[in-house]
Specification:
By secondary structure, the protein is of the alpha/beta class. It has one domain: FAD/NAD(P)-binding domain, CATH 3.50.50.60. It has 15 helices and 25 strands. Strands 1, 2, 11, 12, 13, 14 and 25 form a seven-stranded mixed β-sheet that branches. Strands 7, 17, 18, 19, 20, 23 and 24 form a seven-stranded antiparallel β-sheet that branches. A three-stranded mixed β-sheet has the order 5-6-8. A hairpin with a 2-residue loop joins strand 13 and strand 14. Helix 1 runs parallel beside helix 15, helix 5 packs across helix 15 and helix 12 crosses helix 14. The longest helix is centred in the last third of the chain and has 24 residues. It is globular and about 65 Å long. Bound molecules: flavin-adenine dinucleotide (FAD). Flavin-adenine dinucleotide binds next to helix 1, strand 12, helix 8 and helix 15.
């Protein structure tokens, strides 16, 4: 059987595409996802994100190549491998970035991607629990909530920001991003709101949508420059399915370039090196990779009121009961709780660093096991990193991990900004408001003083905040992979929509921008289809 549209990957973008394209009863849509159903309980309990970070049943658990500039370390790159993709395992923080981010995309020549153009798609996707206004939507499929709980140390963090002269901002997704407050989250009544929940569940009953989990796409099929379908593997069986109209690649910034390369679309020399026949030369595939590299400071707290103790022993039993009965309490906490968006230099037009504050501390950032003693953590990253890396296939095996080379902190501006951010972190910990909870600074500790010390600390201990993007970038220069309608340059019938199409980094976490891009892409596809029918 042939389908009008075949979507590869049921992640943040793929679920939106499946819902919106199948809204037209006259179209047929096949959604292929390499991972399984989202039945793991930890996916749905917000605090459970710590339990899925290293769980290979729902997570690809990629790693970067070892990097000398980061003390020879590899850095974990978790990615969702389940319906909902990374939105099923992410930290749930809802952040759109700055108006300026999208105006830059438009300035680069991408028509239809200015802030004024994309704002309607942010609004279309969401139902903000506080209600709608000119910035916020109130009737979209995805619930966006204020953090369901408040905590005195997080309140103190926001006061600490004010003490240093930063404003309190009740809606950093509204008119301005500047300032401090509580994060907003993709949750519905204390449960995770993944795109599988928000977009796929309401569409499941449609006769024209087939959802196929455990279906690993190994190759995109082409006749000349026309894409005709995909080959996928399920339970060891390989099958090819035909797409009458389009294949929409939504496998995320790590695997979309890999699938293109496996299909012979990419840098000719690299493809030949791996014995893959070149079917369409596109030098930008897998390049322009950026991510948010964060450094984390933590403090021992002088009283037992943090998440570390709240989620142990009898108190944990109480919290579990509270969540089951009321969907409230400590189990609704997420990766970061208090936010801050700040300029490291007064002359900057908009914030260049973002903070994540939590009344919790982890022994290791890899496995996120909470410490026994009370603690708090403040992470910081540069909003728009300039260091650029690459993600390419490591060989012709479609089931092998790609090679991820981020080159974090190679550009001096990235180093300076992160170091400046760490100095602000320390100043926040020393304010009257927050300082009264501090027993001592654990990391980097009092001996770490100079800029060089801070940079060394960032290199030795930093990690990403899991926002890979840009590896199939949108644009019109020779390194662009898709045009501003997200069609792959030089091919017919193939689009990419996921975090890989971003030309530059949005100033914040990127789930909301991915969903916005998918909403926009679905509209473009439907518009083109209507125009074809009318003609
Ligand atoms: C641990 C973690 C925490 C995060 N925290 C936040 C946060 O708090 N806020 C925020 O805004 N962002 C956060 N992010 C980032 C955000 O969730 C992602 O950027 C976003 O979900 C990416 O969407 P995507 O559609 O590009 O890719 P994904 O959602 O990753 O979807 C890609 C899908 O394609 C599937 N796939 C891959 N290869 C194949 C194949 N060969 N065949 C079939 N299917 C395939 C994958 O299994 C996956 O389901 C986090 C991410 C992670 C991993």
């Amino acid at each position: 059987m042939a389908y009008d549209y075949i979507i590869i990957g049921a992640g943040s973008a793929g679920c939106v595409m499946a819902n919106r394209l199948s809204e037209d009863a006259g179209t047929s849509v096949l959604l292929l996802e390499a991972g399984g159903k989202d039945s793991n309980l930890w996916i749905h309990i917000p605090v459970g994100f710590t339990q899925t970070l290293n769980n290979r049943k729902v997570n690809w658990c990629f790693e970067t190549e070892p990097d000398e500039a980061l003390a020879g370390r590899t850095i974990p790159i978790p990615r969702g491998r389940v319906l909902g993709g990374s939105s099923s395992i992410n930290g749930m923080l809802y952040v759109r970035g700055q108006a300026f981010d999208y105006d830059v995309w438009a300035q680069l020549g991408n028509r239809g991607w200015s802030y004024a153009d994309v704002l309607p798609y942010f609004r279309k996707a969401e139902s903000f629990e506080r209600g709608g206004d000119e910035y916020r939507g109130d009737s979209g499929p995805m619930n966006v909530a204020d953090m369901y709980e408040r905590h005195e140390i997080v309140d103190a963090f926001i006061e600490a920001g004010e003490e240093l002269g930063y404003p309190r901002n009740p809606d950093y997704n509204g008119a301005s991003q500047d300032g401090f407050g509580y994060y907003q989250v993709t949750q519905r009544n204390g449960r995770r709101e993944s795109t599988a929940r928000a977009f796929l569940d309401p569409a499941r009953g449609r006769q024209n949508l087939r959802i196929e989990p455990n279906a690993h796409v190994t190759r995109i099929e082409m006749e000349g420059t026309r894409v005709t379908g995909v080959t996928w593997s399920q339970n060891g069986q390989s099958r090819t399915e035909t797409a009458n109209l389009e294949v929409v690649l939504c496998a995320g910034a790590v695997q979309s370039p890999q699938i293109l390369e496996l299909s012979g679309i990419g840098q000719p020399e690299l493809l030949r090196e791996h014995g893959i026949e070149v079917r369409h030369a596109l030098p930008g595939v897998g390049e322009n990779y950026r991510d948010h590299y964060a450094a984390r400071m933590n403090w021992r707290v002088n009283r037992p009121i943090t998440l570390n103790e709240q989620t142990r022993g009898l108190r944990l039993v109480g919290e579990v009961a509270k969540w089951v009965l009321t969907r409230r309490g400590a189990l609704t906490w997420t990766a970061g709780i208090g936010h801050g968006f700040v300029r490291t230099r007064p002359e900057l037009e908009t914030p260049d660093i973002q903070f994540f504050f939590a009344h919790a501390s982890f022994g290791s950032i890899r496995d996120r096991v909470l410490e026994r003693e009370p603690g708090m953590t403040l992470a910081v990253y540069q909003c728009r990193p300039e260091s650029v890396g690459s993600i390419h296939l490591g060989g012709p095996d479609p089931f092998a991990s790609p090679k991820i080379r981020p080159n974090f902190l190679t550009v001096e501006l990235d180093q300076q900004t992160l170091v400046a951010g760490l100095h602000v972190c320390r100043a926040l910990g020393q304010t009257k408001a927050l300082g009264r909870y501090v027993d001592h600074e654990m990391n980097p500790g009092a001996d770490c003083v100079s800029d060089a010390d801070m940079l060394a600390f960032a290199r030795q201990t930093g990690a990403t905040t899991y926002h890979p993007m840009g590896t199939c970038k949108m644009g019109h220069d020779p390194m662009a992979v898709v045009d501003d309608r997200l069609r792959v340059h030089g091919l017919e019938g193939l689009r990419v929509v996921d975090a890989s199409i971003f030309p530059t980094m949005p100033s914040g976490n990127i789930n909301a921008p991915v969903i916005m891009a998918a909403e926009k892409c679905a509209d473009m596809i439907r518009e083109e289809r209507q125009a074809r029918i009318a003609a």
